[in-house]
Design a protein that fits this description.
Strand order of the largest sheet: 1-2-3-4
Strand content: 5-15%
Radius of gyration: 24 Å
Largest sheet: 4 strands, mixed
Number of strands: 10
Helix content: 55-70%
Oligomer: single chain
Order of helices and strands: HEEHEEHHHHHEHEEHHEHEEH
Number of helices: 12
Amino acid sequence: MSHAATAMGRRWSFSIGEVRGTSVRIHFTFLLLLLWFGVVGWFAGGLAAAANTVTFLALLFLCVVLHEFGHIFAARHFGVRTPEVVLLPIGGVSRLERIPEEPQAEFVIAIAGPAVTLVIALALIVLLGGLPPPDELIEITGPRSLIVQLAYANVVLFVFNLLPAFPMDGGRVLRAGLSHWFGHRQGTRIAAGIGQAMAFVLGLAGVFSENIILVLIAVFIYFAAGSERGIVELRGITSGRPANESMITRFVSLDGGERVSKAADALIRTEQTEFPVVDGHGRLIGLLTRDGIIRALVEDGPDTPIARAMDSDIPTVSRWTHMDDVVPLLAGGAKAVGVTSDDGRCLGYITWENLMEELLISRALDRRAEARSRESAPGRRL
């Protein structure tokens, strides 16, 4: 349930359908996970074992999707849309249009997912007539064995998701509580720090137990917590400002009808790694990145029209649009956001990189201010 996390997972994923306005996507590494465990099951017990393993994982991730839709429907209650949910080997991640800063709303949205998982676990336990003790699991066979495994897995997921490791569900519940007392920005800082500390512990546990999935989850939590903290801090320093105060204004633009060879020359002559592509009236029609230039040179040659190599899925905003509306676009995976004049001409563009530079400068100034404050504190010896 994260802007940053979903942006990390959206690449190399494909849609398998849509549920009430939310696209359900599967990351290709999830298919690799199914293949891997299928092969392991095949060598361990033949075709039947492989089929049982793959079926269990598929049903488990169906439970994960239901968990995510618990978040999604709770978010809709507060007027927050969810464009997509991505299935990764470490679980599902849904991208909310925005994370509510109201502690009560975030608490309800965060707890809704584990609540769905608990309902699934209890339903399976009732179906079984009780949860068999772990030492009897080896004696259970057939379809009942699959149901028992799913019941145990959902119990584990319920407990695991409530760990206070931000940005997992338990971490978001923790932030909701901290935000009530310290405010959203400071609450995020504290929750992210706790989440990264827990990620370190989980990573060590995964290494010593040789559990690669636990290590992957730890890495995901560590970087996602840092990204979420960065997004909140960034919104704190840009909130209420118009887009034209954060946009890149000195840049080389390209014409869509020109050849990629000209873009390659511009790549060498300038420090830009992305180039706005405009039409004859100066309106933004796309963005050509360094990777796009290289790919076009290799696959189609230097005479390829820029319009064929560019990324045309670039959102645009007015120069008066508040940054509160721009940051979620970039956090959601947009390569850049074009900033236009009142008549539609491209005035500049905003990338995640230039916003991160703005954040680094803000942090540096904050540290300097804190240092000067300590130096001038009463009673300090000089």
